[in-house]
Specification:
The chain has 775 residues and is mostly helical. The chain folds into five domains: 1-63, no CATH class; 73-89 and 96-253, no CATH class; 289-411, no CATH class; 428-511, no CATH class; 519-665 and 698-775, Four Helix Bundle (Hemerythrin (Met), subunit A). The protein is built from 30 helices and six strands. The chain has a two-stranded antiparallel ribbon. Strands 3-4 form a two-stranded antiparallel ribbon. A two-stranded antiparallel sheet has the order 5-6. Strand 1 and strand 2 form a beta hairpin. The protein is rod-shaped, with a radius of gyration of 50 Å. The termini are far apart.
């Protein structure tokens, strides 16, 4: 019994055309055959066209030599395809026909299926296998009857074509999308190259299928020998399945991603459990990370960011040269590839920023060019060796950042400017401050509208010449200036005057207004503190010089005594507050700042951060997050100034009364002498009642008493409130300030605050104080 043969007219015509097309000399014959076959199909004269074609095809192969070579069992050179045969029948003695031998339940031969699969592997529809766009897969039509395992196997093999179409679609989409970036372009080029290799392999399969279809003598024995079958094709295509499936996954995940996110997505697979996928991911990253590292390399060596598609983790914020250090470039943490540690990315960012700053703001391009030639041969920037990248970046980071700090400290004398701001803006240069108070004090005592800059300029120059500031570096003195704040109703010159230090370039690129603003706030408070102290000193001098004169006014003795005590109390408060701020706060913070610098800073950002910590450690003690002590102290200074005005009025009144008493005494003595008669007779002396008569208190004195009494009571109340807030804080420095201001517990602090204060000790030398003074 012979195996059944499927009468497929289209198949036999294709075999004849392929046979003629194999020989370049018979291309004309192949074209002629197609024309003749078309004419036969258009007419109904011949009813057995398949039998005639099959006979002609068999006769054309009758003189061809049989292929006696065995087919190899591996995919590089696949042998011609076998046929599905009915193994229940006996094998014929003569070679079987070249038609497909299939089970009786199937209408498609294995050769037809594999021929269509070859098309499907290229993403092309075949005669039987078509791409279903709704399902997104290649499918056999339901009308094509075959066994379920065969159908499942064909569908499984056809998924390779689905992967091909997905990857090809991604490549086409990215090439049509403008400005995708160099990393995406490199990725698509890699995928395109891999698809080309895939097509080469498919071409080998297609050649084997063509050879199989033309070799009639080998058809029957192919299945029994080692030829290509659907199952063997599945085994051979396993590497291609893995590769294209992986590429299709990447194409789907990276469709809307660019640069860093794509690198991150692929890098995840470098930890995959399958060595094939792991090695493939590493190979992809080595190729497509080249543009990324080229951007990093140019940034490190030249300080310029050549990144038109924003593919790196460095972004240009502004093209302006103002605030070039902080606001021109930005580190985008979200775009840092996961195979680069954040510390390494930060160093890369600082290297390029430092090189840019040295080249364009410090005019140190010669050193940059010299170092580039040296470091370019030593640095490794490649995905293949991440450890070498970290070591290289660390070495360049230390070299470049150390150079920038050396230029700042030595060439531009940055520490001299820090020191100058401390001495002048924080009033650490005492002789200059005293001379300045004396020289511009009279001008600042005028109303704000009557204060003129040229008068203050003369006072500033006079204070510099009269103090040790005259020996200062001229560069420092040129930066020292002042400006007048906006005037308000009732302001005096003291309220609008502010000393200013203009930071020279290139330091002004990182010591910005927000860095200098705390100095202005501290200067305003310290300047007012000095001003009030200066006024109290003038008041004390007035009290001392007028003490003998005002003794002539007996009814003012109590007022004078009380004002003396209050003046000393306020002077004590000012002295303790100044000592605490200047020595315990400013000097302590400065010492810590110097320690950080002398210990060694790695880059300019750390120096800026250390300076910020220095200035913030001063302001945080005065401007607490819950209580603004600075504002409370300013209110106390305002009260002291009101007291000074009231006492000044009191002494003006006392001097006036003393002069009146002196004039009355002189007039009484003159009257007594003029009324004395010859012979010793005189007028009757004043009676005792007249001498004991109490003078009436003037209305002006009552007003003055009310003023200084209110000032004293307000001062004590606000100091008590300040002490209460200080002793309730956890900061030991604030509690220590409360101890200094109320060492003898003259102010009645509430019990809870007093108990906390009693536990404080001065450098461990205070013993515990129990309770508080009762009223």
């Amino acid at each position: 019994m012979t195996p059944s043969v499927v009468a497929d007219e289209a198949q036999i015509s294709d075999l004849i055309k392929k046979k003629l097309a194999r020989d370049a000399s018979q291309m004309q014959n192949a074209l002629r055959f197609s024309q003749l076959y078309a004419r036969i199909q258009s007419k109904d004269v011949l009813t057995q066209r398949w039998s005639i074609l099959y006979l002609l095809y068999s006769l054309s192969n009758s003189n061809a030599p049989a292929d006696s070579n065995l087919a190899p069992a591996r995919p590089p050179q696949p042998r011609p395809l076998s046929k599905y045969v009915d193994h229940t029948t006996a094998q014929p003695a003569s070679p079987a026909p070249l038609s497909q031998l299939v089970p009786s339940t199937s209408t498609a031969s294995e050769l037809d299926l594999m021929t269509d699969l070859v098309y499907a592997f290229q993403g092309i529809d075949g005669q039987l296998i078509h791409y279903d766009r709704h399902q997104g897969a290649f499918r056999l039509p339901d009308s094509c009857r075959m066994d379920a395992p065969v159908r499942a196997l064909v569908h499984h093999l056809a998924t390779l074509g689905e992967y091909f179409r997905q990857v090809k679609g991604y490549i086409v989409l990215m090439r049509k999308t403008p400005s995708v970036g160099h990393v995406v372009q490199s990725f698509t080029a890699y995928l395109d190259q891999e698809l080309t290799e895939h097509l080469k392999f498919v071409a080998l399969l297609e050649n084997q299928l063509e050879a199989t279809a033309t070799d009639a003598s080998a058809v029957w024995t192919m299945a029994a020998r080692t030829g290509l079958t659907l199952r063997r094709l599945k085994v051979w295509l396993q590497p291609a399945f893995k590769k294209l499936h992986f590429f299709a996954q990447l194409a789907e995940k990276c469709r809307d991603k660019r640069a860093g996110p794509i690198l991150n997505e692929i890098h995840i697979y470098t930890d995959h459990g399958d060595p094939f996928i792991r090695d493939l991911a590493n190979d992809i990253l080595k190729t497509i990370s080249v543009p990324f590292y080229e951007i990093v390399e140019h940034w490190i060596y030249n300080g310029e960011l050549l990144d038109p598609h924003q593919e790196s983790f460095i972004a240009v914020i502004s093209e302006s040269n103002t605030n070039a250090w902080k606001s021109k470039f930005e580190l985008s943490v979200l775009n840092i590839p996961i195979f680069i540690q954040t510390v390494v990315a930060t160093k890369i960012f600082l290297i390029g920023k430092s090189v840019h700053f040295l080249r364009f703001h410090c005019q140190d391009g010669a050193w940059i060019n010299q170092q580039c030639r040296v470091l370019r041969n030593e640095i490794v920037l490649s995905y293949a060796d991440s450890f070498a990248v970290e070591v290289s970046i660390d070495r360049v980071y230390r070299t470049v950042c150390r150079r920038l700090l050396d230029v700042m400290f030595n060439k531009y004398k940055l520490m001299d400017h820090f020191w100058a701001m401390k001495r002048y803006l924080l009033l650490g240069q005492g002789d200059f401050v005293q001379c300045l108070l004396k020289s511009i004090g009279p001008e600042l005592s005028k109303p704000a509208g009557q204060v003129y800059r040229h008068n203050l300029n003369a006072g500033m120059e006079s204070a510099i010449r009269a103090s040790n500031a005259q020996y200062e570096d001229p560069v420092i003195l040129r930066q020292l200036d002042f400006h007048l704040l906006q005037k308000a109703n009732g302001d005096a010159g003291w309220d609008i005057f502010e000393l200013q230090y203009v930071v020279p370039p290139p330091m002004d690129q990182f010591l910005l207004q927000e860095s200098i603003k705390p100095y202005s706030k501290l200067f305003a408070f310290l300047w007012k503190l000095k001003y009030v102290e200066h006024e109290l000193s003038k008041l004390w001098r007035k009290q001392t010089t007028c003490s003998r004169t005002v003794r002539r006014v007996p009814f003012l003795a109590g007022d004078i005594h009380r004002c003396h005590i209050a003046t000393h109390e306020m002077t004590h408060f000012l002295n303790q507050l100044q000592c605490f701020i200047l020595y315990e706060v400013i000097e302590k913070a400065w010492t810590a700042f110097m320690y950080r610098i002398n210990k060694g800073l790695d880059d300019l950002d750390l120096l800026i951060a250390a300076h910020k910590v220095y200035i913030m450690s001063i302001t945080k003690l005065l401007v607490h997050k819950r209580v603004n002590y600075l504002q409370g102290m300013v209110k106390i200074l305002d009260v002291i100034f009101q007291f000074r005005n009231a006492v000044d009025n009191l002494y003006d009144f006392a001097l006036m009364e003393a002069n009146r008493y002196s004039a009355s005494s002189t007039k009484a003595a003159t009257t007594t002498r003029s009324t004395r008669k010859p012979g010793g007779n005189t007028n009757n002396p004043p009676s005792a009642a007249e001498n004991s008569e109490t003078p009436r208190v003037p209305e002006r004195l009552l007003v003055i008493r009310q003023q200084y009494t209110t000032a004293i009571e307000t001062f004590q109340r606000r100091v008590t409130d300040l002490l209460t807030n200080l002793t309730e804080q956890q900061d030991a420095n604030l509690k220590f300030l409360a101890v200094r201001l109320n060492f003898n517990e003259v102010y009645q602090v509430p019990v809870a605050a007093s108990s906390s204060r009693s536990r404080m000790s001065l450098n461990g030398s205070f013993s515990s104080v129990d309770g508080h003074q009762s009223a």
